[in-house]
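quick q for whoever's on today - can somebody do inverse folding on this one?? i tried earlier but teh output was garbage lol. C-alpha cells:
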C-alpha cells in the first residue's frame, strides 16, 4: 500500500506526519516547500543488500558530494540506463539517517544528468532548508520503480558550505579595538557555541558566555579589557559526521596565537603587546637581499641545532633561545656560513605540533648503553622505548597553525613563546640570516573525534578531502586537508600572513605542495607580495615560496591539472625541489631499495661497487656508461635551474631542450620556466643523509680495486662534489644542516622520530655521528644486514681533520657563489644566453664522469653583470683519475684558478693547470675546479 505524507520542517530535520494527504494541506505545503515536488514516498525497507546499504551510509563515510545548493554528485555502480530509472531522495536528521534497516522519508529530487557510474541530482528546491539541514546528517538514496531501496550514502557538504558561508573578514580568532577583544569562530553548521574563559591555564572553573551567530556562519563575542591574557575554550554543539550524532565539543581556537602548555587552552593575546617584543623588534632591518636568485638555504631543526651543544646553557638547549647565544659553537658556525654567503635558515616545522610533550620536565630521555658497538642494535632499542615520550619529532604533525611550538620554548605555557620565537628571528637576522618556515597545510595530525582533532570538531567533514569510498584521504600520511575549500585556503592565507607580519618570516616551504592547487599557491604569493614596509613592516617582494612538487596524492588524483606539482607549477614563480639533479648526482632515488645504486659523484661506471643489492644498476659497463651520460645530461639541465626550454646537445648527440631529456625512463627532466623555480639539492632532512648515501653506494670490499674499499677521505671528496653541483648551479641552492660536516644518521633512512641520538649535530666537528648503532628497527630493520658490515668498518668513519676540511670546503663554495653575479642569474633569458656546457658538444664521445660549464659575461647586446670576471669555467671531475679537457672556446683566454681555490688548503687544487694556447684544463681526480678570467 502506498501512503502519502505531508511534512513540516523544524529543528533542522524532517518530521514525518502519518496523515493522509488532503487538499487542506496544500497551502501549508506550498508555504513550507513550494519549490519541492510533492510525490508519493514509499516506506523504504531494505529488501535487497541490507548489509551493503548499512555500509553505504556508515557514519563518517560520505560518498556523495553536495557540490552546490543546486546539485549533488553521486557515484554509483550502475549503467546510465539503470541510473535513469531510479528514484532519488535527500534525507536529513539529527542522527545518522539509517536506523533499524530503514531510511527516514526524504525529499524527492530531479535527475539532472547521468552517465555510467555517476548521477547529478538537482537540489535547488531544497535551498530554503539547506542551512537547517546542514546542522544535522544529510544522506541521499536511490530506489527502484517499486520503491525498493538500492543505494544510500551520506553527503560531503563542503561545496554547499562554501557557497553559503564563505567568510572574507580578516578578524577570525582574536581581534582588538583598543583594549577590547572580540573573539570570532567560523562554525556554520554549529547549533550553538559557548566561550569558557579561565583566569589561568590550569584553572578548574571559569566564566561561560554564549557567542552570537552572525552572517556567513561566524559566531562572535566581544569581551572587555580584563579578558586580556586570559585563557579560553569553545564549546561547539555540532553534528559529528564520524559518529553520527550531535556532540558538544570542547575545543581550542584554530586561529589561536598563544596556547597553554600542550595546547590545552587558547590564550587571548595581542601580537602588538610590547611585552612580547624584544628590544628593537619594530625597527628590525633584515639582511640585504637584492634578488630571489641570491638566496642560499640551510635546512635546520630547532632541537637538533643545540640539544647537544655544550656551549649553550642547559636551559636553552633545544630551544629558540639557543639562537641568542652568540658565543655558542652553533651560532659561531652559522655566523661563518652567513659571512661566506649563506642567506636563509629554513626551520623545520615550528608551528604548534600535536605529538611532542611540551613540558620538558616530563620528557623521557633514552638510556644509551655506553659501550655499544657501531653496529649494535642496543642504541636504537633504547631510543625506541621512549621515542613517543622524548622531546623529539620533526614536527610534521600540525595542530595549531598560528602558534609557535611550545616544546622549543623555555617557557611553553602561554605567551612567553611568542617573545622567544621573535628573539630567535632577531638573533639570526643580526647574524645576516633570514628565516624560512616549513609549513604543513596538506594534512593535520588527526580528524574526526580523535583527541588532537580540532577542525573536524568545529565544522565536521568540511576541512578534509574524501575519496570515492567516503574515507578521508590520507595520501599525505595523515588526514588530507582540502585546500580547494574556501575556508581551508583562508586558514592557510590568514596564518601565513600572521607569520609574515608579526614574526617577520622571510619565506615558506610547503610540505607536499602537490596536495594544494596552483591557484592556492598563486593566491598566497600575491597576498604576501603585496606586503610593504610602510604598511606592514615587511617587504613582501622578498618573501620566497617553494615546496615539494611531487606529482601524487589525493588532489592530483581528481584535479590533476590543478595540483601544484613540478609540471603544473611552471611559470608560477614558486620553487620546487629538483629530484633530477639529486638522483643523478647520488644515484638511485629516495627509496631504500636503491640505497646502493651509484650516481655521478660516487662511482657509476668509472668506479663500480659491484654490490648485489643494486636494484637499478645494470651489471654491463657499457650500459652503465650510457646511464651515466644520461645522468650527466640531467645534471647539466639542473645547473641551468632546470629550465624546460634550455637548448642542449645531449649524450646522444641530438640538439634538444631541457624538457626533452629523459629522467627515469620518460621525458621531462627540465620543467621550470625560470631559475628561481628550481631548488637544487642532494640531501634534505628526509631519507638518508648524503654521507650515508655515499657509504651505501661507494665501493665496499670490491675485488681488484685498490684499496678494495673507498676510504673516508675518498668519500668526503664525493660529498664535496655533491655540494659543489648544488652551490655552483643556477637556481636556489638548498643544503640540509650538517652536510658540510659529513653528517650521518648511522644509516637511518627516516629519522623523524629517531630521537636526538640518531639526529645529532656536532658543531665541534669531533664526530659526524656515523657508526652510532644500527638504525632504528621501526623504519630500517630490513636493511640491517646491509648496514652492519659498513657500520663496523673503521675505514668509513671520518677523522676530525676530514670533517673540518669539508666544512672549510663548503664555506669556500659559498664564497665562490657569492663572488659573482654570474652564478646567480635571474631570468631564463640570462641563463640561456650566458651558460654553456662545453663538453656536451661531443655528444656520445664526451668523457663519462666529467661536466664542464662555462658562464660568460661578454655576450653581444647584453649588459655586463660582473665587474670582476669575464668568464667562469666550472669543471666537475667525479672520476678517480686526473682528466684533461680542451676546447676551442677556451683558447687564448687568460684563465686562472678562482682566488678562493688558490687560497684553499686542498692540495689537489694546486695540481690543476690551464694552457692558454690549446685551451686545455687539467682537473684533479674527484675534484671541482673553478677557473675565471678577470675583467
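ok took a stab at it. sequence:
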Amino acid at each position: 500500500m502506498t501512503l502519502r505524507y505531508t511534512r513540516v520542517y523544524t529543528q533542522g530535520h524532517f518530521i514525518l506526519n502519518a496523515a493522509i494527504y488532503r487538499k487542506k494541506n496544500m497551502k501549508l505545503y506550498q508555504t513550507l516547500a513550494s519549490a519541492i515536488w510533492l510525490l508519493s514516498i514509499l516506506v523504504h525497507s531494505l529488501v535487497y543488500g541490507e548489509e551493503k546499504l548499512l555500509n553505504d551510509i556508515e557514519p563518517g563515510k560520505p560518498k556523495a558530494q553536495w557540490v552546490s545548493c543546486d546539485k549533488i554528485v553521486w557515484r554509483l555502480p550502475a549503467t546510465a540506463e539503470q541510473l535513469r530509472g531510479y528514484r532519488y531522495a535527500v534525507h536529513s536528521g539529527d542522527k545518522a539517517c539509517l536506523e533499524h534497516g530503514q531510511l527516514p522519508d526524504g525529499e524527492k529530487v530531479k535527475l539532472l544528468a547521468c552517465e555510467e557510474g555517476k548521477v547529478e541530482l538537482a537540489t535547488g528546491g531544497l535551498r530554503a532548508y539547506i542551512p537547517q539541514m546542514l546542522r544535522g546528517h544529510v544522506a541521499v538514496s536511490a530506489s527502484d520503480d517499486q520503491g525498493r531501496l538500492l543505494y544510500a550514502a551520506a553527503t560531503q557538504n563542503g561545496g554547499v558550505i562554501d557557497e553559503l558561508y564563505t567568510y572574507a573578514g580578516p578578524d577570525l580568532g582574536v581581534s582588538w579595538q583598543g583594549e577590547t577583544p572580540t573573539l570570532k569562530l567560523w562554525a556554520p553548521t554549529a547549533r550553538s557555541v559557548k566561550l569558557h574563559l579561565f583566569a589561568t591555564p590550569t584553572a578548574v572553573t571559569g566564566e561561560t558566555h554564549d557567542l552570537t551567530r552572525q552572517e556567513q556562519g561566524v559566531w562572535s563575542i566581544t569581551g572587555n579589557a580584563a579578558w586580556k591574557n586570559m585563557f579560553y575554550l569553545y564549546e561547539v554543539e555540532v553534528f559529528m559526521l564520524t559518529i553520527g550524532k550531535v556532540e558538544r565539543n570542547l575545543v581550542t581556537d584554530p586561529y589561536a596565537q598563544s596556547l597553554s602548555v600542550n595546547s590545552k587552552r587558547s590564550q587571548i593575546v595581542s601580537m602588538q603587546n610590547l611585552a612580547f617584543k624584544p628590544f628593537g623588534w619594530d625597527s628590525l632591518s633584515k639582511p640585504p637581499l637584492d634578488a630571489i636568485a641570491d638566496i642560499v638555504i640551510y635546512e635546520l631543526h630547532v632541537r637538533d641545532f643545540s640539544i647537544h651543544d655544550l656551549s649553550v646553557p642547559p636551559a636553552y638547549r633545544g630551544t629558540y633561545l639557543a639562537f641568542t647565544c652568540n658565543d655558542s659553537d652553533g651560532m659561531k658556525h652559522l655566523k661563518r656560513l652567513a659571512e661566506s654567503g649563506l642567506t636563509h635558515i629554513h626551520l623545520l616545522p615550528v608551528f604548534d605540533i600535536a605529538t611532542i610533550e611540551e613540558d620538558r620536565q616530563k620528557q623521557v630521555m633514552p638510556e644509551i648503553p655506553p659501550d655499544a658497538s657501531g653496529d649494535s642494535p642496543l642504541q636504537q632499542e633504547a631510543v625506541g622505548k621512549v621515542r613517543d615520550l622524548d622531546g623529539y619529532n620533526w614536527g610534521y604533525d600540525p595542530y595549531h597553525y598560528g602558534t609557535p611550538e611550545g616544546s622549543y620554548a623555555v617557557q611553553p605555557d602561554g605567551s612567553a613563546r611568542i617573545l622567544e620565537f621573535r628573539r630567535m628571528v632577531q638573533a639570526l637576522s643580526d647574524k645576516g640570516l633570514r628565516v624560512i618556515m616549513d609549513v604543513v597545510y596538506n594534512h593535520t595530525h588527526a580528524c574526526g573525534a580523535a583527541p588532537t582533532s580540532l577542525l573536524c570538531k568545529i565544522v565536521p567533514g568540511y576541512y578534509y578531502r574524501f575519496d570515492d569510498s567516503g574515507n578521508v584521504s590520507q595520501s599525505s600520511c595523515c588526514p588530507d586537508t582540502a585546500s580547494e575549500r574556501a575556508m581551508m585556503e583562508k586558514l592557510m592565507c590568514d596564518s601565513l600572513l600572521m607569520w609574515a607580519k608579526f614574526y617577520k618570516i622571510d619565506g615558506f616551504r610547503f610540505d607536499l605542495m602537490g596536495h594544494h592547487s596552483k591557484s592556492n599557491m598563486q593566491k598566497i604569493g600575491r597576498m604576501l607580495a603585496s606586503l610593504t614596509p610602510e604598511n606592514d613592516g615587511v617587504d613582501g617582494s622578498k618573501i620566497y615560496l617553494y615546496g615539494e612538487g611531487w606529482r601524487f596524492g589525493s588532489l592530483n588524483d581528481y584535479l590533476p591539472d590543478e595540483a601544484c606539482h613540478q609540471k603544473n607549477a611552471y611559470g608560477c614563480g614558486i620553487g620546487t625541489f629538483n629530484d633530477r639533479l639529486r638522483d643523478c648526482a647520488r644515484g638511485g632515488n629516495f627509496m631504500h631499495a636503491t640505497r646502493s645504486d651509484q650516481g655521478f659523484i660516487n662511482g657509476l661506471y668509472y668506479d663500480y661497487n659491484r654490490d648485489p643489492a643494486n636494484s637499478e644498476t645494470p651489471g654491463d659497463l657499457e650500459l652503465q656508461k650510457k646511464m651515466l651520460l644520461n645522468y650527466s645530461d640531467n645534471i647539466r639541465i639542473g645547473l641551468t635551474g632546470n629550465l624546460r626550454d634550455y637548448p642542449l646537445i645531449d649524450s646522444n648527440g641530438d640538439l634538444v631542450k631541457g624538457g626533452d631529456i629523459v629522467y627515469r625512463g620518460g621525458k621531462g627532466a627540465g620543467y621550470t620556466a625560470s631559475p628561481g623555480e628550481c631548488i637544487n639539492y642532494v640531501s634534505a632532512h628526509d631519507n638518508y643523509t648524503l654521507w650515508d648515501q655515499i657509504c651505501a653506494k661507494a665501493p665496499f670490499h670490491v675485488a681488484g680495486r685498490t684499496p678494495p674499499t673507498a676510504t673516508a677521505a675518498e668519500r668526503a671528496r664525493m660529498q664535496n662534489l655533491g655540494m659543489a653541483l648544488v652551490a655552483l648551479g643556477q637556481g636556489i641552492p638548498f643544503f640540509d644542516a650538517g652536510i658540510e660536516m659529513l653528517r650521518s644518521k648511522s644509516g637511518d633512512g627516516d629519522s623523524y622520530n629517531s630521537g636526538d641520538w640518531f639526529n645529532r649535530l656536532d658543531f665541534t666537528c669531533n664526530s659526524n655521528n656515523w657508526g652510532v648503532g644500527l638504525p632504528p628497527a621501526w623504519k630500517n630493520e630490513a636493511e640491517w644486514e646491509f648496514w652492519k658490515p659498513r657500520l663496523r668498518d673503521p675505514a668509513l668513519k671520518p677523522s676530525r681533520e676530514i670533517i673540518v676540511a669539508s666544512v672549510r670546503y663548503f664555506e669556500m663554495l659559498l664564497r665562490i657563489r657569492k663572488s659573482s653575479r654570474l652564478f646567480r642569474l635571474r631570468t631564463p633569458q640570462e641563463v640561456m644566453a650566458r651558460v654553456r656546457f662545453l663538453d656536451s658538444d661531443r655528444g656520445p664521445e664526451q668523457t663519462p664522469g666529467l661536466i664542464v660549464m662555462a658562464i660568460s659575461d661578454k655576450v653581444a647586446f647584453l649588459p655586463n653583470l660582473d665587474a670582476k670576471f669575464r668568464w667562469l669555467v666550472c669543471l666537475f671531475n667525479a672520476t678517480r683519475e686526473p682528466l684533461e679537457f680542451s676546447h676551442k672556446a677556451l683558447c687564448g683566454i687568460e684563465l686562472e684558478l678562482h682566488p678562493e681555490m688558490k687560497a684553499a688548503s686542498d692540495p689537489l687544487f694546486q695540481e690543476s693547470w690551464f694552457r692558454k694556447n690549446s685551451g686545455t684544463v687539467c682537473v684533479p681526480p674527484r675534484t671541482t675546479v673553478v677557473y675565471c678570467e678577470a675583467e
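fwiw The chain is about 20% helix and 20% strand. also The two ends are 99 Å apart (CA to CA). so keep that in mind when u check it
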